[in-house]
Request: fold
Amino acid sequence: MMRIAFSARIPSTALQATRNLLVVGGILLLAGCANISSVRGTADLATVVARATGEVAILDTSTRQFIGIVEGLGDLSHASIVYSRDGRFAFVFGRDGGLTKVDILRHEVVVRTLQAGNSIGGAVSQDGRLVAVANYEPGGVRVFDSETLELLADIPATIDGSSDRSKVIGLVDAPGNRFVFSLWDSGEIWIADFSTGNEPKISRYKDIGTQPYDALITSDGRYYIAGLFGEDGMALLDLWHPENGVRRILDHYGMGEERLPVYKMPHLEGWAIAGKRAFVPAIGRHEVLVIDTENWQQIGRIPVHGQPVFVMAHPDNRHVWVNFSVPDYDTVQIIDTENLAIVGELKPGTGVLHMEFSPRGDQIWLSVRDDNKVVGYNPYTLQPIAELPLPSPSGIFMSDRAGRIGL
Reply:
């Protein structure tokens, strides 16, 4: 065995001092963790929204049990959650404008603020220093210190320089400490660049299309794509070359076809990309659209059970899972990404609102709102592995999102 000798010698007094510091530090660390049942990481934890009660449940995916409940989080009827850089703290965005920082190890609220009248989601900056919130009322983005939730920046989403404001949707984090978001009312995409401090540089892209309703950013942080509700098509912004402006893709994909009534707005997330293909819900249609991500051209349309809401790729990209809007929201279908065929179907219960894979894909968890339960499955055998009661569950958010762009 090779032995490596270091030329520098550490004085024995300095070495003893270092040992003493480590002992004291260990004692302090144990004292600080006295209220935690055991010292542990967070990589196997998830948060699950209980929308009816204004609570968040902490799910341990290793034991397949809820291990804690955090109360007092306000109106969670359309809540979303992102994580701090270290994965310990969850930032909960409530429909009442509440922003709450939750310690998922201690199962308690750290700090909470009512920062607006109606918010729709948020994101944490690349360096973990900032947390941004997208607001409907007043329309705009507010940016806070992630440690204290002190307000650092207020970005009103003004329309054409007037005092009128637009609802903000599709807020994501992007490389370079940037936030990207869309304006529903004015059909714009904005970039807020915080790379030089707390005074953002704002770039605006107008006339992207009618009523952008949600957006995704690719996992490499390059492409921001906004879905359009007011017309067929999507708007794509290349963040490597923002000077080139916004490009329309999937233009008029439903030309000549009558759109069905939309009962629940579909969602876009970066997890809908599997390999070199993107799978996105078709607005008002019983279809999933397939896009070649090298040229952003449509290459397929997959008929499905109902109007898709979430389209999610398994971590190994072999399959995508799809859930549906009312009245078909008792069903989940599984699509083979190679041959674009439906290869599986589940009936977990009534009101399947959300799905989330464990980080390595050995589990998938489904919230079944109307049956007041959260169900876990083995995604390979499609056999249930757990069924946990929870009142009106909705969003499920794995803590590994802390290390992923746009989630």
